[in-house]
């Protein structure tokens, strides 16, 4: 592959040649296929004639949602009405030549279309099928309505995203669709694993993969489940501090922004105290070790905050960086987009979108030797049905061949 | 594979037969390999003689960290001193028979051991190498010290995890090592993609994959980068509410817990108001549409909170569920572990750990047809070096064959 024709562009990407069908909408399944398309897979996104409703989300230019430029990139879009017999026959032709399919309908919906795993495998027994849903394909909550925040709440994350003892304001959301994203990532990972299993084994059959939003979030709970089982401990929110390390916290700055500082090791602590003009504090016995600093953390945090409040976050950050104290202000989108490291790594790159104009795209989250991040964005999110003709012409050729 | 001998246990898992070396410590690389091992890959974790320092994290039983029962499950542990020539030769023998390697040393460290990608590919040109670091393998911040919260802060997530206008308490952390987890997931996904590319192609060579914590978090920023580029908009934190949907928020309950309610569609809004004993409010013109409710959201939120404050979260949840209003209390670890859906889906399962006793394990986040979640936990996290003999005996046999 990559070695045979290094000039072939997409062919240098690892999943070049892998054929994936997306029956997705909103976030989870389309995010899974966006990652797989970034890695070089051929993704055909099957949408209803009116398009994936995510196309109506957020701001737009000329009727085109700007997020979709990224969310739909590197995909082919085909519109089909899955209630129509003729369109269903077209879908079966697509299934017959695909390696994998990703869907995120509510459990049972694909079966109601007559397109459940049994029907799909009757057409193509080697098809890997990844299904994403709020609660999974079985279990007592299977049919409960899933909504955006449910995975975050039920998977255990929202309970932790809070300041301890704070009862007036609710724990904030993550601010992004974290449970959909995680489920999409797991579905993509298991899908490629299923394709790895099938590849080169003529006897192999495609698997059915069931990923749910709740379980995807729950998978990040580290040692909390063993600790609950063994000791009955229930982890409580810790806010921005870390109980076992001090000083390590997030501090308010003069411009209303926040600065995250990790100053808990003995050496770094001394550098930090010197940098904020309190070198004498570093010498005091009650701050001599991390354990002692944890006991007296309120006093330390107050000292540090008194200093950070005098400077804008970027300036305080620059002072501490010079002093070699690990820190980072809480980047907002401007900070990210204008940061020299982001630019140097092409994590942010201008891309020409024929529907919208110049759009900033984030790089794929994996960098590959011999491929620039820019090469991994082969085209921007297309209009719904933009590839109807191209895909079915390709199909007719393949079927005739 | 799976079809040839369906009774063979691990062989039914999709990555059975894939050989992965982990040169990892703490979270990101070991999390990547835990997921790959759950999917059936053979993972050999190479640790320094004193063991991965993550083994000292959190609570323990008899000197064994309880988290490691999960974090190290399904892996073989081999201890090697990478500064020792003899051990380095052993590592090269392992490299020679592996499909992939995952590492999360600081950039340059593997090269300083004389084990950089060039050296590894000299031993095995087909090896897929996944590298995880805080800022990536190049760019101006490459050598900056990475610390846990950096990816969250610099990738744009911490800025969003906040209540708007709230300036006294810092935005809380996610409460889990989200940036390490995301990077581990991306590394695992790209690694399998690299292995898919190599499989069955005798001319193919292994790729080098570079995943960073900052970029992994940044990948979740949805439409925020295009919106910044096109309009100069900088997304600000929205707390627990959603600006464009009302009422949808998180409300305080009598037991100090929180209840997340999504009551913004017209029909559900009416059911919600009836359930909380305010059916007349649903009929008022100023709450007639979602747009009007968004304008008058403070009043609505106060009404709903006045009701939730009278009941413990679980009871309020039960009332709303009966009324078919989507809601979820913010689950803590007890809620997760005791929930009937979690139990029915085997998302929580007791596993016998020979080092610790009975430990609750979370299921793998992907369910596979024909495999029970319990079968995917083949063994619990082993002691450091537990498989030294077994692995090198296996190696000697392979080399002799």
UniProtKB/TrEMBL annotation, chains A, B:
Signal sequence interval, chain numbering: none
Pfam families named in the record: CoA_transf_3
Coiled-coil region(s): none
Example GO molecular function: CoA-transferase activity
SUPFAM superfamilies: CoA-transferase family III (CaiB/BaiF)
Keyword Cytoplasm: no
Keyword Transferase in record: yes
Protein's name in the database: CoA transferase
């Amino acid at each position: 592959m990559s070695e045979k024709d290094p000039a072939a562009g997409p062919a240098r990407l690892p999943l070049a040649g892998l054929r994936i069908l997306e029956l997705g909408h909103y976030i989870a399944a389309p995010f899974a296929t966006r990652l797989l398309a970034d890695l070089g897979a051929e993704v055909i996104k099957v949408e209803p004639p009116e398009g994936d409703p995510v196309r109506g989300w957020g701001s737009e230019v000329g009727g085109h949602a700007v997020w979709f430029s990224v969310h739909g990139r590197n995909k082919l879009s085909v519109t089909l009405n899955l209630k129509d017999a003729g369109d269903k026959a077209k879908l079966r032709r697509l299934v017959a030549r695909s390696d994998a399919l990703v869907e995120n309908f509510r459990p049972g919906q694909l079966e109601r279309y007559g397109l459940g795993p049994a029907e799909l495998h009757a057409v193509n027994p080697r098809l890997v099928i990844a299904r994403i849903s709020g609660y999974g394909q079985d279990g007592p909550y299977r049919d409960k309505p899933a909504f955006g925040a449910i995975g975050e709440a039920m998977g255990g994350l929202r309970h932790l995203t809070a300041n301890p003892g704070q009862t007036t304001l609710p724990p904030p959301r993550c601010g992004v669709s974290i449970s959909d994203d995680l489920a999409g990532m797991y579905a993509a990972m298991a899908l490629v694993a299923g394709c790895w299993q099938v590849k080169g084994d003529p006897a192999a059959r495609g698997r059915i993969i069931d990923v749910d939003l709740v379980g995807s979030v729950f998978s990040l709970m580290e040692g909390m489940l063993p600790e609950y089982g063994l000791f009955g401990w229930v982890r409580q929110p810790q806010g921005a501090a870390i109980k076992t390390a001090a000083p390590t916290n997030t501090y308010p700055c003069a411009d209303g922004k926040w600065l995250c500082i990790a100053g808990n090791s003995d050496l770094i602590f001394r550098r930090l105290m010197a940098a904020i003009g309190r070198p004498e504090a570093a010498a005091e016995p009650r701050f001599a070790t991390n354990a002692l600093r944890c006991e007296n953390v309120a006093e330390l945090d107050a000292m540090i905050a008194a200093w950070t409040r005098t400077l804008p976050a970027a300036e305080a950050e620059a002072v501490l960086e010079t002093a070699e104290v690990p820190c980072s202000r809480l980047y907002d989108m401007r900070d990210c987009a204008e940061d020299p490291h982001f630019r140097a790594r092409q994590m942010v790159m201008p891309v020409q979108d024929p529907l919208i104009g110049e759009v900033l795209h984030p790089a794929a989250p994996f960098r590959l030797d011999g491929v620039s991040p820019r090469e991994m964005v082969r085209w921007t999110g297309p209009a719904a049905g933009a590839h109807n003709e191209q895909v079915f012409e390709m199909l007719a050729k393949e079927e005739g061949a």
